Every structure is written in structure tokens, then in C-alpha cells.
Amino acid sequence: MSAAINDYLARLERTLWLRRRYRAEVIEEVRSHLERVAARDGAFADADAIVRGFGAPRELAATIVNARPWWQSTAPNWPMLTMLASYAVLWSAPLVRSLPLIAEACILAAIVALPAVSCYVMARRGIAGRRLLDLIPVALPAAVSLGYLIAKLAEACFPHRSSPMLDLALITAGLVIPLAVACAAMARQPVHRVQIVAVGLAPALLGALPFGFSVMVGEIHPLYAQIFVLQMLKSLAVIAGIGVSLALIPSWSRAHPRARLWSRMAISSLPALIWGLSSMSPERCLTPEHLTLLAVVTLIGTASSWWTTASLSPPRSAPPTAAT
Amino acid sequence: MAPNPELMKGISQVLVMQALTGEARSGLEILDVISTRSESAVAIPQGTIYPLLYRLEKQGLLRAHWRPGDGSRRERVYELTDKGRRTLARSRRECLQLADAMRLLLGEAT
Q1: Over 50: is that where the pLDDT of B50 sits?
Q2: Confidence at residue B16, expressed as pLDDT on a 0 to 100 scale
Q3: CA A65/CA A75 separation, integer angstroms
Q4: Pick from A37, A66, A320: which is nearest to B10 by CB?
Q5: Which of B88, B77, B67, B84 shows the shortest CA–CA distance to B14?
Q6: pTM of the prediction?
Q7: Testing the interface with B: which of A1, A28, A36 to mutate, by most B Cβ within 10 A?
Q8: Which residues of chain B neighbour A66 with C-beta distances below 8 Å?
């Protein structure tokens, strides 16, 4: 009907990351709206005239995608993807260690490159990349992966050195900090709880796969089966802990405003504590290094979990907000 | 005079749901109803109506269906669900109480 409307809708459709059916429905609905406005008030001079009323197509598309149910969206969950990259590096370490150094370096380089590619795609498709906070979850795992690669190279050069402190630094930097930052980034936009569970579940599968694969191909070692079960239990416990935190804290906060800080701290310490306790392996149980690790992870995990749930929870007694 | 957008954020949801009492309407009709009933004092920006409607639909407060529109086009219209009606009743009460309180508080200064 109008070149201006077609132009605006084409620009809207380019960044409307919904499944084809739902994208078509939104475009049809907005087209119907614009055509009726044009018929009533006169045709739009150009797409910019529509932008003045409807807003920039890219921003409208992002708001619409966030307002739709998560399963209709085709927008990649960047925090989750980067979390996966980070977890993949750390949890696949037992598998990676058995490879030649050059193969290990290639794998890690690929994982380092993944967030960079994500950054590029994100900036190009204009989903979020203009804000610094959106880039941090992408950049941080890259930095962690790079650090891990350097540490592995150093370990190869100095094989006699043990590395409990390296483990501490890696686990803290590689798991807890990206989790906190990724969740903070997710808190900036509506994220379904299923996505949060996926953040926990996917790494569990990633971590379990190498061991499961070893069992499947016949390389059955009692330790592999034990680690497989432990990994799954640990991940499920962490998911359950995070789920409980997210489910309980908002309602507790509303019901007991004076106990809000206390209840948040108590509940939000559970996931980190469960994670820390479940990471105790028989051969390293209760060593000073492990206890330090447990304390640090629990402390940082508690703080990050508290911050995350505080960010994700709606403010107490806040009025219902519009979808802007 | 259009109200401050920040002020509108909290009440847009109630206004949209109130506009849907009685009959199903499209996004444009909802905007028109709000503008007409408020004698053009309140206007929700066009760009925020669809994200808001989708969010309310996602929350189960509205349901949508297509109906034939002008010419060959069809249009998507929204109506309140039972949950939406209950939520609207509660929100209306809260808004009216707040309005009374604001009148008392701010009216004293005039």
C-alpha cells in the first residue's frame, strides 16, 4: 500500500528474532495498524515518519521479542552461549589433558574465538552489542579461556609444579564470575526461568558427556562412572538450589520485608554451598587447598547468587510496569 | 497535555485492560479508546502498545484471535481472560485509591 510502510516493516522484520509463524503474525498486525492509521490520517511521507510514532524498528523488534514467550524467540541467548563456552573449557579439562598439546591448543583457541564471533554477529545483527554490559559476558569467558590456555602452556613448560591455586583461580574466574555477570546481563531483559535452568543443565550435560562417552565406548573405569554420577548430581543440586532461590526469594521478600536481607542471604548461599560440597572428591577431600576453594567459592557464589536473585526479583510493592 | 512517560509506565497496563472491558479490540482501537475517553489527555505511544499486549497475553491476562478487517486484511484483536478480569478489578481498586490519596496530598498545595 505504501512504500514507507513496506520500508519500515522490512527494517522491523530484519531484527525481529521470532519463529517464522510468529514473526509473520507480528508483521501482519503492525501492517494492519499502520495501514489503518495511514487511511485515517493520510499516508506516511517516509519510514522516518513512522519511526516518530512507533520508534526505531530495531528497538521495537527487541522489545517485542522480549515480550513474547521465550519459546517463540530465535534470538540466541548470548549469556547462555558464553557460559557454555566457559564451562566447556573447564569441565572438559580431563578430556583435553589427554590430548597432545597442539590439539589442546586448537580446541581452546576455538573456544576463545567463539565469544569473539558472538560479539561480531551480535554487533552486526544489532541485538544488543551497543551496551558495554551486554559485551562483558561475552568477553569475560574469552579472557578466562585465554588465561586457561596460557596456564596450560605454562604447565606444559613447568610440569613439576602442582596447581591447586590455579584450580582455585580457574574455578572462581571461570564459573562464578561469568555466572554472576551473565545473570546480571540477563536481568536487564526478561528471561524465562527455563533459560536459567538451561544455563545450569547444559553445562551438566557438557561435563558429563566425556565421561559418558568413555563408558559407552567400553573404556569403563570405575572412576569415570563415579564422576559421571557425581557431575549429574552436582549439576542437578545446583539447578535445584538456584531454582529454589529464584522461586522463594521474591515471595519471601514480599511476605517478610524485614527479614528480606536475611532470607535472601540464607537461601542464596545454598546453591554455592551445595556446589562446593558436591565438588569434594575422595582424593582431595578436606585438604587445605580444597577447603580454601570451598570457602572462596561459597562466599563469591553467595554474593553473586544474592545479587542475581535481587536483580531478577521485582522490587517489593512496585507498581505493574508497562512493556517498555 | 500528555502525561510524563515515566508516570504512564505504571498505569498503561491498567488502561489497556480497562479499554478491553466489554468487547475485543485491536491495538489501534485500544489506543483510540484511551485517547477518546481521556479527552486526549492520555495517549499511550504506538510503539509500546504491542509489546504491552504481548506481555499481557504471555501472562494469561489477555487472549488474542484474528477477525476479518477492512478489505482483504484481517486484524488481531484482544480480549480479557478471567484472570485478566480479576487482575483488572484489583488494579482498578488500587489505582483509584492511589488517585484519591494523590488528590488529598497534592490538592492541598493548590
Answers
A1: yes
A2: 94
A3: 8
A4: A320
A5: B88
A6: 0.55
A7: A36
A8: 51
